[in-house]
Each structure stands twice: as structure tokens, then as C-alpha cells.
Amino acid sequence: MILGDLGADVIKVERPESGDDTRAWGPPYIGKESAYFLSVNRNKKSIAVNFKDSSGAKIIKELSKLCDVFMENFIPGKLSEMGLGYEDIKREAPHVVYCSITGYGQTGPMSHRAGYDSIACAASGLMHITGPEDGDPVRPGVAMTDLATGLYTHGAIMAGLLQRQKTGKGLYIDCNLLSSQVACLTHIGSNYLNSKKEAKRWGTAHESIVPYQGFKTQDGYLVVAAGNDKQFAKVCRILNMKELVEDPKFKTNPMRVQNRKELLAILSARFSEKTTKEWLEMFEGTGVPYGPINSIKEVFSDPQVIHNRLVMEMDHPSSGKIAVPGPAVHYNDFEVTNPLPPPLIGQHTTEILKNMLGYDSNTINDLLKSGIIAQNTLD
Description:
The protein has helices at 2-5, 35-39, 54-66, 78-81, 86-92, 117-123, 144-167, 177-183, 186-195, 229-238, 243-246, 253-258, 260-271, 276-283, 296-299, 303-307, 349-355, 361-370; strands at 11-14, 29-30, 33-34, 45-49, 69-72, 97-102, 171-176, 212-216, 221-225, 290-292, 311-316, 320-325, 373-374. The chain is of the alpha/beta class.
């Protein structure tokens, strides 16, 4: 999707009839499409091909010759059985950057397992460190492991294209959910690797910085992050609790971490005395990092979110006008405008076979009749 936002022509290969599993991940549905599918499939064209059939696999091979990047997310070895593995495509199109996304990698004791975000989230340790301090492990509210893998993959593909520009040759890229999420453990992983310190859940708090967490107000929550002693002093002035600054138990961050419970009890009592809006007004312009815990409704009415143009609208062929979270990055020389709406299953099959591969109408009709391809047309 990110590559599509940047101007790439993206062809999404789907199974005839059922298509991408996420089309059925609802409710909610917008028309016949799930909101989940609509959220991550803009700027893609859909071709429905049964590539388990040799005639369907032939279509994929022919397309690979015309494309820069070949992406797949099958269990290791599955595409090779159909003649569409890396070595097969490399023979047909040595220029192609071939990228595999799996659950655990191409080799190793877990490589044969299917990859799902929640399982990789658990196995990678992310779920172990997410949730309330004395509560059960919690899955993040969005598929962070899937998203992290997609972001790593995007960067890897761009690097692969740069490499090909230098050498003229394609290459193989191995991305997987487990590796992506373990790499994202950052300081949590480093803490264990270097001191053998097992991590724990902290809720909204930070293990090494105090105060750095959400506080309950009269009507909601406010997150305050005092990353150094000067910021802590500012927090105390805002709260009209200057005596805390000189208290030796709280004077430095290491002391605040050591006396976390006592300090947080004092701060929590104070934050509960006013509304979130009142605290926001008092923190504004102080230089202290702060912000409310917004509902999703509040997110999309936030002035900064609106200013950053984070809502993208488009007209879908069957769902009507839809809106999705837009690109996170903007560029000075071009804008992401007039995005293609997420496609219907096989919406572009005939178009791609005709315009890219030069298939004639008789050949396309024969493929349609045999069920090797499918073309979606609106009634």
C-alpha cells in the first residue's frame, strides 16, 4: 500500500471467488467489503487467478517479467511446488526483487507454521510486556506485528531496488513476523541481553522513567512524560507541588524510579482533581511532553490530525464513498492524490491480461470459462 501511495502500479493476485481472507473479516462491512480490507488495500489492482493450475502459474510468470517486485506470503516451499518460487521466477525474470513474508522465516524449527499477528505477538515477547502491571498479557489494539513487518518489508524492497539499480540484478528478501517484532523489542531486549533482567508489564508507565505514564483525571486520562529532572520540576510547578522538587526521594530520576509508588500516589491524587481539558490548558506551552488518551472519535476530530491530512477519502465501486487513514509521510515535490479505491476481487483481471500481457479476447474467454481466472463486474 505504501509503494502504491508512492506511485507504484500494484497488482494484487487473489483466489477466484473468495479472494483475500481479510475481505471477510467483519463486521463492520461497507456494502459487501469489510472495513478491515478497505483499510489497507488502496492503490492496488486485483487479478483473480488460480495459479495452482499450470495455466494460472504461467500468467504469474509472464507478469513477473514485466514487474520490478514479486511479493508472496505463503508457507516456505509452497510456491516452489507450483513453479513460482524464487529460483523459478529468477530464471524467468532475473531483474526481479523477490520478497517473501512468512511467520518465522524460510528455515528453522518453526518455519513450517502459518504466520498470524497474534501468535507472533505472543511468541516474540510483545504480549508479555503489554497490559496492566498486575494483569494478564494483552494484545495491542491493532496488528502491530503485521504492521511492523510491512514497514520493514517496504524499506527492504526500496533497498533492493537501489541495489538492482547498481548491479542490474534482482535479489531475494526474507521478511517474517517473528524477526520483525523481536527487532522491535529495542531497549527491552537490550535490558535482558546485557543484564539478564526479565521484563514485566507496566501498563501506561515506563520502566526507567518516572513520571512517564497516564494519569486518571476527573473525566478521562492524561499522559505526562517527564524525561529529565528539569521537566519534572516543571510538572511540579504546574501541579503547584513545588515541594516535591526538593524532596531528596524525588530529586533525580533514579530516585524517582526507586520511590515510584510513593510519588505516583501523590501525583495521581492531584491529577484526579481536575478534568483532562483543564490539565491540557495548564500544560500547554510549558515544554513538558503531555497529551490526552483520545478515543478514536477524538483522534479524527483532533486539529493536528486534520492538519496532517490523515484521512483519505475515495469512491469505491460497490461501497460508495469511503474514508481510511491516509499516508503518514508527506513530500515537498509531490502529493498522494486521487488514490485508487480498494479493488473488487478480480476487478482488473481482463484489463491486465489484455493491456500488459497482450492476451486476445478468445484466450481470456477460455480462461474465464475454465475457472482459471475470474473477472468481477458490477451489476
